[in-house]
Amino acid sequence: MSPSLSPDEHRRLVESLGRTLAPRAVPLSRALGCVLAEPLAARLPVPPFTNSAMDGFAVHASDLAELPATLPVAGDIPAGDAGGHAVAPGTAWRIMTGAPMPSGADTVVKVEMTDHAPHVTEPPGRVTIRRAPAPGANVRHAGEDVEPGAPVLPAGVVLGAAALSAAASVGYSLLPVVPRPRVGIVTAGSELADPGARLGDGEIPDSNSVLLCGLVEAAGGIVAARVRSADAPEALLASLAGWPELDVVITAGGISAGAYEVVRQALASAAMRFHRVAQQPGGPQGVGTVSLRGRGVPALCLPGNPVSVFVSFHVYAAGLLAMLAGKASCAAPRRLEAVAGVGWASPAGKAQFMPVVYDGGSVRPVHRLGSSSHLAASVALADGLAVVDADVTRVAPGDRVGFLPTRLDR
Q1: Total-model pTM
Q2: E strand residue ranges, 150-268
Q3: Could you report the per-residue pLDDT of 346-383, keeping only the tens digit for each?
Q4: 307 in the same domain as 199
Q5: Structural domain range at position 321
Q6: Are 99 and 232 in a shared domain?
Q7: Where would I find the H helices in 224-277?
Q8: In terms of DSSP bridges, do strands 222-229 and 204-205 run parallel, antiparallel, or are they unpaired?
């Protein structure tokens, strides 16, 4: 392997692969969390037609000069009605919330201001209005929120539920977005077995595939392919040759200095670089591109121990996915500050990423063994990673440390 790099040096190599994916049109149902690629202007007015804001009776305000006022009811206008009704002077129409206003009417009297009982299916023949609202009350006019052609959403916005609702309301079913990155996942090692299976001698559950799939989906990617590879480079290459078109490949395991490092052996090329990073956990790292379907696809090769995978994903892979998805501002991990609630040791000359529990600004390691890379079960308790600089060998209670949040479910 090449000489050790600092975490920042390795991150810069990762970020050099982060070219925003080409925009494409996707249905609203698949656009949640995507970045809007173009400004969105209204195709429809909102509301699309003038309608009632209340359940009640559509009237001429001039007919309510003297109260109580009793008016004949010409008919009923439910929501979804095609419209075309007209209110003659001295009459009323029963109308439901969202129903189109009949021509001639300028006011809606709430049902509570009349002698008509609510929740009655049939409209009355006559209605007595006991209290009068202000003229023009309870009417929503076409386009009063947004007129056709008005800007609705700017390019670059991350589409949440409210933004998608706004797009639907102004006439869109497809949106131009930077798509979610399609990710292929490789977990390596002959010792890996299906989670829940009876373990043979020397076998361990393949928790890394579950971990990576969850992390990718939580970070906004799509797991489009996955394979578990034994220690046979030819078999791994054969599996990759059958994969669909991808935007990034993330591997776990098989890149260290042992004799059976299947990922390093299979992907070794001028376009891939394997080296050590001066950090704990997660020293061995790989970065570059692999040839899939005739094109170079960005590839991140992570170590195989679960805590190393967890740390490496949050420190490096999540940022690459953000860049591919058009969220360049999210590429660097969001580093905060915290106070060490207890003391712990940190390796000399290495940045330490310690899985910690966060409580009111104070952090403590999730396990008494600290940042050991095999603590797969304990890392589930982590709220984030305490970051200790490479020149620090001992964290004392009360010391300030960096803090990278990792709980994407909060």
Answers
A1: 0.86
A2: 151-153, 174-178, 182-188, 192-193, 204-205, 222-229, 248-252
A3: 999 999 999 999 999 999 999 876 555 556 667 888 99
A4: yes
A5: 2-21+179-330
A6: no
A7: 233-241, 262-267
A8: unpaired
